[in-house]
Amino acid sequence: MLKIQFMEEILKQFPNLTENQILQFKKLEVLYHDWNAKINVISRKDIDELYTKHVLHSLAIAKIQPFEAGSYVLDVGTGGGFPGIPLAILFPETRFYLIDVIAKKIKVVQAVADALELKNRDNFQKSYIKPALNADLIALTLPDKKTSKNQKYRLTKKGKLLLKKLKENGK
């Protein structure tokens, strides 16, 4: 899928994006290609499909769970910033906490968020429980147990499990 087709698809799914949000989504390709050349943040075989395999996949969560202005979302195991960065672009009035134990990945998340001028996120390179206590939604990213590559999302809201697994086929 070409970047133009991706933007058409994202605008179709989210027609009320501002010009700034559109620009931020467009910048993701250059930022992640640049960082991926330095640090293996996204699988080398997947980097050319950044929008379909990572960005759109992250935004699919917004179709299942709305994010209210002023709420707090904890993205545990954010890796290179998915789903946190795309969701932070989509929901600028929601506060995102992006957490990962791998310092180099948080370094990338920080650089990408800074380049996009995202103000509604914090990044942590440790288990950071304080925001979790008050989080309205927790997006937990886990590697697939068989391959350790594919990521699934488990969503909880105030202790209630909303979505156990988001499979690749959408079921």
What does this protein look like?
The relative contact order is 0.14. The radius of gyration is 15 Å and the shape is globular. The protein is an alpha/beta fold. Strand 2 (95-99), helix 5 and strand 3 (121-124) form a beta-alpha-beta unit. It has helices at 3-13, 19-38, 50-64, 84-90, 103-115, 129-134; strands at 72-76, 95-99, 121-124, 137-143, 151-157, 160-163. 42% of the residues lie in helices and 19% in strands. The protein starts with a helix and ends in an 8-residue tail after the last strand. A 6-stranded mixed sheet has the order 3-2-1-4-5-6. The longest helix is centred in the first third of the chain and has 20 residues, at 19-38. It is built from 6 helices and 6 strands; from the N terminus they run H-H-H-E-H-E-H-E-H-E-E-E.
The helix/strand series, from N terminus to C terminus, equals: HHHEHEHEHEEE
- The average pLDDT score comes to 77
Structural classification: alpha/beta
Bin the helical content.
40-55%
> What gross morphology would you assign?
globular
The tally of strands reads 6
Radius of gyration: 15 Å
Regions with pLDDT < 50 over 5+ consecutive residues? Answer: 147-154, 159-171
The first-to-last residue Cα distance is 22 Å
Main sheet: strand order = 3-2-1-4-5-6
Work out the helix count.
Answer: 6
Q: Hey, roughly how much beta strand do the residues contain?
A: 15-25%
